[in-house]
Automatic annotation (TrEMBL):
InterPro entries: BURP, BURP_dom
BURP domain span: 76-293
UniProt KW Signal keyword: yes
Keyword Transport found: no
Signal sequence interval, chain numbering: 1-24
Protein name: BURP domain-containing protein
Coiled-coil region(s): none
Record's keyword terms, sorted: Signal
């Protein structure tokens, strides 16, 4: 399942960057910056140099760009870097449940439209001005939910837990038992960005079919759920942060990225192109991975 964002995505999905605070502005900004920030790698001009010198220049340029990348996009890596002892910068957003949007019951969510052409009505309903950060975030979420999927992808924006389960069962199997996985923070900390070391690869989870659901900025919780017909690997890993944080993090590795947009933030961050490399990414704690309830194989190495 390709991540279009996040996509998060992965994923992974393009969202605008909010520039002021609002009732759910922090979440919107984090998701937007994670899933929509296009990283521009400006090539410096100059005379042609030997291949070795050019490689050194590219590495220096990449390191310089990395210094200016928004931390919220630092969730991507490749399989070659996925090993015990690997240390990498990772962003895990921390959201306060008391001030974050709530998950609505299906009956309540179904009672109002969820459609871009109904945005003026929705803004009045939630008392948001047309040019407010909330309005911009709502428009972006609705636009993304109504956009066409990439080749081989099935997508759905769930407005309730029940609708998310219905979609998941349609993908994995109406009669299949399903289970969800999410990142777990073992320690409480306000630090959202730091270097983490992979202490252990706790398990590799078979993923013949998979649905990933990412939270989207909206007055109530919206899950952007999608699945793609391509080979994926799902892992749970134990991370140790420089700040002594410990995280049991969920990881999805996409082995086929040939259908992804060339402008996907992961390609620009990792310096690869569609179809030439796997792309793995960590999941925030409020994003879900749905899988068939299959036997789980413990693993401490790839």
């Amino acid at each position: 399942m390709g991540v279009k964002f996040m996509p998060w995505i992965l994923f992974l999905h393009l969202l605008v960057i909010l520039v002021s605070k609002c009732s759910y502005g922090d979440e919107a900004r984090e998701l937007a910056e994670t899933e929509n920030k296009l990283l521009e790698f400006a090539l410096e001009g100059g005379e042609e140099v030997s291949t070795n010198m050019k490689d050194m220049h590219d590495e220096h340029k990449h390191a310089h760009v990395m210094d200016h990348i928004d931390p919220s996009v630092m969730v991507f890596f490749t399989l070659k870097d996925f090993k015990k002892g690997k240390r990498m910068p990772i962003h895990f957003p921390k959201r306060d449940p008391a001030s974050s949007p709530k998950l609505w019951p299906k009956q309540q969510a179904d009672s109002i439209p969820f459609s871009l052409n109904q945005l003026p009505y929705l803004l009045k309903l939630f008392s948001f001005s047309p040019n407010s950060p909330q309005a911009i975030a709502m428009q972006s979420t609705l636009s993304e939910c109504e956009s066409k999927p990439i080749k081989g992808e099935v997508k759905f924006c769930a407005t309730s837990y029940e609708s998310m389960l219905d979609f998941t069962h349609r993908i994995i199997g109406l009669k299949s038992d399903i289970q969800s996985f999410a990142t777990l923070h073992q320690t409480k900390s306000s630090v959202t960005f730091q270097n983490y070391t992979i202490l252990d690869i706790l398990m590799e989870i078979p993923a013949p079919k998979m649905v990933a659901c990412h939270t989207m900025p909206y007055p109530y919780i919206i899950f952007y759920c999608h699945s793609q017909e391509s080979e994926n690997r799902v892992y749970r890993v134990l991370l140790h942060g420089d700040n002594e944080d410990r995280v049991e993090a969920m990881v999805v590795c996409h082995l086929d990225t040939s259908q992804w947009s060339p402008t996907h933030v992961s390609f620009q961050l990792l310096g690869v192109t569609p179809g030439t490399s796997s792309v793995c990414h960590f999941f925030p704690s409020d994003h879900l991975i749905w899988l068939p309830k299959l036997q789980i194989h413990a693993s401490s190495s790839l």
